[in-house]
Design a protein that fits this description.
Structural class: alpha+beta
Number of strands: 3
Shape: elongated
Radius of gyration: 36 Å
Strand order of the largest sheet: 1-2-3
Number of domains: 2
Order of helices and strands: HHHEEEHHH
Low-confidence stretches: 117-135
Mean pLDDT: 76
Length: 223
């Protein structure tokens, strides 16, 4: 088995070296963007939280949520992932519906403003708001996230990026271990031989010194 691993480690050295060099930039991009996503305070300024006014009555919010769910169910192929109530300086209080269109696999969000007006006016504003999709917020954090996950090339191709990076890291880890095992065994064998040689020398040394002393004493007695 050891001989097979030694034979296998030789071609693996070449693959390990060239694959590592070819994927150096993608792996570095994943590593750096991962660190930047964990520490957004390095490149983003602190957000000043706006204190929102008092929220509208719960009945009004519940009615808008029911309207939002009804309108979202009419959208063909739209799968709801999240629905919550938020506040924006220009929109005021609104119900945000986030989901994914099954046909395009793209995430979208729609808003229903919560306006303290009559039900007829409220229905018209909600109907107009849900048909308009708010533009995505540009920023460094979104760019780093898309580069880290591979969505910068499109969500439908993101799995290629993830699989490429994952399989490459697994191959580099396994091939590096196989390459290192013969070196580890050789060092261990070398150290074992040194220990044995040291024990043999220490065991032979006293006999040599005793024999030399006996020879000297015999020579003195003869003289």
């Amino acid at each position: 088995m050891f001989a097979f691993i030694r034979t296998l480690s030789r071609p693996l050295r070449q693959f390990h070296r060239w694959i590592g060099l070819a994927l150096m930039i993608p792996l570095l991009a994943v590593a750096v963007t991962g660190i930047l996503l964990i520490h957004p305070n390095w490149y983003e300024s602190r957000k000043v939280e706006e204190l929102p006014p008092s929220p509208p009555p719960p009945r009004e919010i519940a009615r808008v949520i029911a309207t939002a769910l009804d309108d979202a169910s009419k959208l063909e192929g739209f799968h709801i992932k999240q629905i919550d109530v938020r506040f924006h300086s220009s929109l005021g209080w609104f119900v945000n519906v986030k989901g994914v269109h099954r046909s395009t696999a793209r995430e979208r969000q729609y808003v229903h403003p919560v306006a303290a007006t009559t039900s007829q006016t409220m229905g018209k504003s909600a109907q107009q708001a849900i048909l308009s999709e708010p533009p995505p917020k540009p920023g460094l954090k979104k760019f780093f996230k898309d580069l880290h996950t591979g969505e910068i090339f499109g969500k439908e191709w993101a799995w290629i990026w993830a699989d490429l990076v994952g399989f490459s890291l697994a191959f580099l880890a396994c091939s590096g271990l196989i390459i290192y095992l013969p070196v580890f065994w050789a060092k261990r064998k070398r150290n074992t031989n040194r220990v044995l040689a040291g024990e043999v020398q220490s065991s032979i040394g006293p006999f040599k010194s005793t024999e030399s002393r006996e020879d000297v004493s015999c020579a003195r007695s003869v003289g």
